[in-house]
Design goal:
- The protein is α/β, with parallel strands linked by helices.
- It has 5 domains: about 200 residues, Rossmann fold; about 220 residues, P-loop containing nucleotide triphosphate hydrolases (Rossmann fold); about 90 residues, Winged helix-like DNA-binding domain superfamily/Winged helix DNA-binding domain (Arc Repressor Mutant, subunit A); about 160 residues, no CATH class; about 80 residues, 5' to 3' exonuclease, C-terminal subdomain (DNA polymerase, domain 1).
- It is built from 39 helices and 19 strands.
- A hairpin with a 2-residue loop joins β8 and β9.
- α16 packs antiparallel against α18 and α34 runs antiparallel to α35.
- The radius of gyration is 29 Å and the shape is globular.
- The two termini are about 35 Å apart.
Length: about 900
């Protein structure tokens, strides 16, 4: 980068180094100024003329937005001379930049309450790797502000470098939360925000003419997205790939997928910048070599973390600064809660006592080892709570309860009904997505003060609390790892609301040896981010090789071996006792035997300048292999998927959605007990045309009735087929507009589990759609699945499907709008909020305004999508 070619980040840091008009003032009515990044120490050469004060004033007053001229001038005048010169160097050639920079800074303050950067953030943004768009890895404790740095880098890529960005996050819920968080920035700064999670995402994405795109993806969807971009020679459109929770590269098959996609990116020319971040990273030297990255580490935490271990009635404090490692735990205090004998019997670990020390004035998270334990602890807490707590936030908690009942179409579990008035709730995967979102928002707003939760919350959305309590040093039946502990304890401390955050681990004497080892020995261990490419029968290596051959990244044995030598596995091969050549031979043979790839002999001119043709062996994909890559189908299931689709075409029943729903049920379902009694009850309610699907599957009434009453019966279909059909009938209830609560209650399944199943089916249906594109005979799937996937995504009927795309709209509200005559986005976009309030029951004005606004935005996006697709059709046509 030329010294005089500065970027958005320089200017943004400069704008945050100065007082803003909305900042609080001190006792002398003087704006408080956070410590600024010293730009004067950075050496720069410039051809710009020396600036006099009149020119500076003219430059600074030439373009202002949403601020008074005096405010803009005062703000600029507080910077030193070199900073002013730098601002003018950047602003003079691009007059729109002052407005853009002000808007970015204002948006960060408006939506994130961010008025300045921390010093470490400024340092990180000023690193040579960031300035030269080189690969970068940085670590910081949870809640330290890691994500903001990455978002600023992506904004710089989108707005200054004019390239697209990919943001990879670990879970679907986190992707959805991040999309909601970034949407105001996309609206205001005019870039596309595209979600790639579950069934959402287009391959390849629409090629944009004007705006740039930020793709927010799960790991699996990012892999598919990158494959599609490579295949269509469009990776040059990507300027940066950001990986949150980079430590997941060492966690099972998802880590192996992450390693694979990063390896493919590393082979590209030119390569987009890779930025990885995490609160905990081991094997950092291996990761730096793997990504050829610079490293930045900071121990900064906006709120100091105090760590404790409670055994019986003694609280020990963890001291990580002691030179004598034999005394890392020292007695801090003895608990003396006024428990009755009955209290001690109900709560022998004194969990409620520890919680009561902070709520209701502060907040508390209680991590529990299982979902059922979450709910039990929530009930335990409220059994101890005094009735006077019911007066705190009574009105807001009543509204929260009403909203939860509304999104659940009239239902709510008894535990939440009883706990929320006390400011308590539970949070785990058994909740629906709407329930989780409402509970998270209520906790952030202080309406709820205590959440009992599973470990998944520690890697999900950021919900900081004054005190974090680990109910047990176990996650499920497995002992807590150091990485899990760091993630959970990292939630302790709320910036701006407390000076310290506290983490308590509740343990028993029998756990102490293992707990000490985890807290101190494992903390210094340099392993953890180990490659998982070679685990699980080298499945991930086979997938990586297939991807590379299909995308024409590699075609020869030598190039494939070179590919493996670029992986993290290659750097750790000796320690993991892996022989790359043997692995390559084994995996290639597997792919050939499975009819996924084939070997082809070609002739080419020799390299020694002799006009002589030599024979060469190359690898290429079969049609099945190509379909496997296109559909992101599990290698081991590719043949089964093909056979399943081919067989299902013969007698496909389209009189109702049940058969198509069965076709799209994934093969790798979680273990569950088939409820034959419920299946029989549901079958008896079905119409004749619906029962025909049972006959198609060779499932007869006699077999089901015998199983329902516990009699032995010989089934004609496999256990796997029976389970998939059982799930199809279960989810078919949702197609009939039954609520998640009704379906979960009837089938005796957790409502969140039902929703997760539906999401898995939508995702697998998307895979089938892209898989089928490789086969002409599968044209019916290509016609049927797009609209079916939409129904699966929004879990609704065709009638209200168009309205379900509006962010935040629920099925009940959509039905109200349909009844009021608003059947399309266009009709809603043309509506007046006042008119909506008159015809839709209990619709507040603010909600009506938001519905109209979102409808207009979506309509404009759809129109722009069509224009971009039309432009792509005629591109390069003379």
């Amino acid at each position: 980068m030329d010294d005089c070619d500065l970027d958005l980040i320089d200017e943004l840091c400069s704008s945050f180094c100065t007082p803003r008009t909305s900042q609080k003032t001190n006792e002398n009515n003087t704006p408080s100024v956070n410590e600024s990044l010293s730009l004067s120490n950075r050496k720069r050469t410039s051809t710009c003329n020396p600036l006099d004060s009149s020119k500076i004033k003219k430059a600074c007053l030439s373009d202002v937005s949403n601020r008074s001229i005096v405010d803009e001038y005062d703000e600029i005048s507080t910077l030193d001379e070199s900073a002013l010169q730098m601002l003018c160097e950047e602003w003079e050639p691009r007059s729109q930049f002052p407005t853009l920079l002000t808007r970015v800074a204002d948006l960060l303050e408006k939506y994130r309450n961010i008025q300045s950067f921390h010093n470490w953030q400024k340092k990180c943004l000023d690193l040579p790797a960031r300035r030269k768009n080189q690969n970068l890895i940085y670590t910081l404790p949870t809640s330290g502000g890691k994500t903001l740095v990455a978002e600023i880098m992506m904004l710089n890529c989108l707005l200054h470098r004019r390239l697209d960005a990919i943001f990879i996050l670990p879970f679907v819920a986190v992707v959805q939360e991040k999309v909601r968080s970034l949407q105001p920035f996309a609206d205001e700064l005019d870039f596309h925000l595209e979600e790639y999670a579950a069934s959402k995402g287009r391959y390849p994405p629409i090629k944009r003419r004007m705006k740039r795109s930020l793709y927010v993806c799960t790991i699996e969807k990012a892999n598919s997205l990158i494959n599609s971009l490579i295949e269509n020679n469009r990776m040059a459109e990507i300027g940066i790939v950001v990986v949150d929770e980079l430590h997941m590269i060492g966690e099972g098959q998802r880590g192996a997928i992450l390693e694979s996609l990063l390896t493919k990116i590393r082979l590209l020319k030119p390569q987009p910048q890779i930025v990885g971040m995490s609160a905990t990273l081991a094997n950092i030297d291996d990761l730096l070599k793997f990504l050829d990255a610079q490293f930045y580490e900071e121990r900064f935490r906006p709120v100091e973390l105090e760590e404790y271990v409670k055994v019986n009635d003694i609280v020990y404090k963890i001291d990580r600064n002691k030179a004598n490692h034999n005394d890392e735990l020292f007695e801090h205090r003895r608990l003396d809660f006024k428990y009755t004998k009955q209290n001690l019997l109900n709560d022998p670990d004194r969990v409620v006592g520890l919680i009561s020390e902070v709520i209701p004035n502060d907040s508390c998270l209680v991590f529990c080892p299982s979902k059922i334990n979450c709910e039990n602890v929530a009930r335990l807490i409220i059994s101890f709570m005094p009735e006077k707590l019911l007066e705190d936030n009574r009105e807001k908690r009543s509204i929260l309860l009403e909203t939860l009942v509304e999104v659940n179409e009239g239902d709510l579990c008894d535990t939440l009904k009883a706990a929320i008035p006390y400011g308590v709730a539970y949070h785990h995967s058994g909740l629906t997505g709407d329930e989780r979102q409402l509970i998270e928002e209520a906790f952030l707003d202080g309406i709820l003060t205590c959440l009992t939760c599973t470990s998944t919350l520690s890697t999900g959305v950021n919900l900081p609390a004054k005190r974090v309590i680990l109910r047990s040093p176990y996650v499920g039946s497995q002992f807590l790892t150091f990485a899990q502990y760091k993630q959970m304890s990292g939630r302790a401390g709320r910036t701006g609301q407390s000076q310290t955050g506290e983490c308590f681990v509740i343990a028993h004497e029998r756990d102490m040896k293992q707990l000490r080892e985890m807290l101190f020995t494992m903390a210094e261990n340099n392993t953890g981010c180990d490659s998982h490419l070679a685990t699980n029968n080298s499945y991930a290596i086979k997938q990586l090789l297939l991807n590379a051959i299909s995308l024409r990244i590699c075609s020869t044995y030598e190039s494939l071996l070179n590919l493996l030598q670029k992986t993290l596995l290659a750097l750790q091969a000796d320690r993991l006792h892996v022989n790359l050549e043997s692995l390559l031979d084994e995996c290639l043979q597997y792919l050939i035997d499975a009819n996924i790839i084939r070997v082809k002999e070609i002739e080419q001119i020799s390299d020694d300048n002799h006009v002589e043709k030599v024979k060469k062996l190359v690898y290429e994909t079969t049609k099945l292999g190509k379909a496997t890559v296109e559909g992101s189908v599990d290698l081991g299931l590719a043949t089964s998927v093909y056979n399943h689709l081919a067989t299902s075409l013969i007698d496909m029943n389209l009189e109702n959605p049940l058969h198509l729903l069965y076709i799209t049920i994934p093969f790798d379902l979680p273990n569950m007990t088939i409820g034959f009694r419920q299946l029989v009850d549901r079958m008896q309610e079905m119409k004749i045309e619906e029962k025909l699907v049972f006959k198609l599957m060779d499932i007869d009434d006699t077999f089901l009735h015998k199983k329902a009453v516990g009699l032995p019966a010989q089934q004609k279909v496999s256990k796997e087929t029976m389970l998939r059909f059982y799930v199809a009938v279960m989810l078919y209830d949702l197609f009939k507009n039954k609520s998640f609560y009704d379906v979960a209650k009837f089938w005796d399944q957790p409502r969140g589990g039902i929703q997760n199943l539906f999401s898995q089916v939508a995702s697998f249906a998307t895979s089938i759609f892209y898989f089928s594109k490789s086969y002409d005979e599968f044209w019916p799937y290509q016609q049927l699945l797009p609209i079916f996937i939409q129904r699966l995504t929004f879990c609704t009927s065709l009638e209200i499907l168009p309205l379900m795309e509006i962010p935040g709209i629920k099925r009940g509200r959509a039905l109200q709008l349909i009844r009021a005559g608003y059947h399309t986005l266009r009709s809603l976009a043309k509506a007046q909020p006042d008119d909506l309030m008159k015809v839709v029951l209990n619709l507040p004005l603010r909600t009506a305004q938001i519905l109209v606004k979102h409808s207009k935005r979506l309509l404009c996006e759809q129109a722009e999508d069509l224009r971009d697709q039309a432009a792509a059709l005629v591109e390069n046509i003379e």
